[in-house]
Amino acid sequence: MPELPEVEALKDFLTEHLVGHDIMRVLPVAVSVLKTYDPPPTALEGRTVTGVARHGKFLDLATDGGPHLVTHLARAGWLQWKDRLPDGPPKPGRGPLALRVALETGAGFDLTEAGTTKKLAVYVVQDPGDVPGVARLGPDPLADAFDEAAFAGLLSGERRQIKGALRDQSLIAGIGNAYSDEILWAAKMSPFKLAATLTPDDVHTLYTALRDTLTEAVERSRGVAAGRLKAEKKSGLHVHGRTGETCPVCGDTIREVSFSDSSLQYCPTCQTGGKPLADRRMSRLLK
Questions:
Q1: Closest CA to 242 of 211, 261, 222, 266
Q2: pTM for this predicted structure
Q3: How far is CA 81 from CA 47, 61, 200, in A?
Q4: How many CB atoms lie within 10 A of CB 159?
Q5: Tens digit of pLDDT for each residue in 73-89?
Q6: DSSP structure string for 86-112
Q7: Nearest by Cα to 102 from 38, 41, 30
Q8: pLDDT tens digits, 137-180
């Protein structure tokens, strides 16, 4: 799933390639991708893109005096830029193409989604705040106002495990499964640690890890073409998605805890005092 650093890089890429250009056509291929119907996608046609913004994991294309095109790529969605779009309208079918946006130059982009679980979402709205997912977002963790005191305040009333708290978009915007694993590994903190038990030193360590991890990921992604961002993200991850590999700090084997629809990765030596975390799903499979 694209998270804050990748969506930030897409924002920068689209700012360079879209701003000042006219949208000629908006072509939904998978009707299910559209989550709003008034105004219709055709309301964007003939308008000039005036800016591109990021709200958590949402991309927001603003047009001159008109509606916004807001997109959430979800788990398997992606944006594919094309310097020259194919001639003719796309054909509906079982392929990954969900929506196409064409510019007056002949360039444009496709929104695609792999797999059978379709969660890619596109909204055409007068104000990004009209999108429910945007309206409920917590603060952006890279904003200047998001200092250590603000972070401590958010966690002060939390009774959840810290992994879940970091992923809650209404608490902090933009952090998903991958970067929460990376932040906790950098902080040398168990993902199962309860947020309410964090000491001031713990909060300081976690805040530093959060800012450093996200800032480094954004800088690593900056200037990378849209088509290479997925590979760039994977190459920069130390523990997430690396079950069975060696921790780059201590040499221990990276372990995994599986859930019904996701998994987390961690280093026992760095994060849990050498103890493997209970993986109830795997335990049931082994019985």
A1: 266
A2: 0.92
A3: 19, 15, 45
A4: 9
A5: 998 899 999 999 998 88
A6: PSSPPPPSSSSEEEEEEETTS-EEEEE
A7: 41
A8: 999 999 999 999 999 999 998 999 999 999 999 999 999 999 99
